[in-house]
Write a structure and sequence with these properties.
Elements (H helix, E strand, L loop, with lengths): L11 H25 L6 H8 L3 H8 L2 H14 L11 H7 L4 H29 L4 H27 L7 H10 L4 H9 L4 H16 L3
Helix pairs in contact: 1-2, 1-4, 1-6, 2-3, 4-7, 5-6, 6-7, 6-10, 7-8
């Protein structure tokens, strides 16, 4: 007797459903972490906001600390694609600009644009770091990632031969000015527009880092 032919299983639909579920969870977690704080947010609340069960979140992310880390990955990148930040097309376009002054101006515009997405989450993690070990660990990782990314930018700036300071000083200056604190002070607290802030950061970087 012939065995019945087994139908090939197409998992694409299930994979897409799982991806949409992850996105919903990450959006819900991000919003709750920002609105009410990491420490005060429970997995049950995230599940309710995302329309899934707590068990689904635990099965996907294991725990709240891992969820926090994944939310950061998506927040800084703007999507869930597995692409390192400094390798994203918009960042590569900045890195490819041969004129260092123009490159810093482009970089200033970029970090200002992304600040509106990233800074609220950074401030939420900073606020929780004093009492939540997972948040403190995440804050250290965020700073490490940013320092490494600015290292790439500084090394490539030095390679142009157009820096007026050392590569190390360049790295430390742009690292210190891109943690979101200045953007929040000027734009949120003092009412500057993003355009004005980006232009100011660009002028400062060109004036202090680029050889006349």
């Amino acid at each position: 007797m012939r065995e019945p032919v087994k139908r090939s299983y197409d998992s694409s639909r299930r994979q897409e459903q799982a991806r949409q579920t992850r996105r919903a969870v990450l959006r819900a977690a991000h919003d709750l972490f920002v609105e009410q704080g990491y420490g005060r947010t429970t997995i049950t609340e995230v599940a309710r906001a995302a329309g899934v069960s707590p068990e689904t979140i635990y099965a996907t992310f294991k725990n709240k600390a891992t969820l926090l880390h994944r939310v950061w990955d998506v927040t800084i990148g703007g999507d869930d694609d597995e692409i390192p930040f400094h390798e994203r097309p918009e960042v590569r376009a900045i890195r490819a600009e041969p004129d260092l002054a123009k490159r810093f101006v482009l970089h200033a515009r970029f970090v200002t644009t992304t600040a509106r997405r990233i800074v609220p989450f950074i401030r939420a993690v900073q606020g929780a770091a004093g009492t939540e070990p997972a948040a403190a660990t995440m804050l250290e990782e965020m700073n490490r990632q940013r320092f490494a990314g600015m290292g790439v930018m500084a090394a490539e700036a030095a390679a142009t031969g157009q820096l007026s300071v050392s590569e190390q000083e360049c790295r430390e200056v742009i690292w210190a000015m891109t943690d979101g604190h200045l953007w929040h002070q000027f734009v949120i607290e003092r009412g500057w527009s993003d355009e004005r802030f980006a232009a100011w950061i660009g002028r400062v970087w060109v004036a202090t880092l680029v050889r006349p």
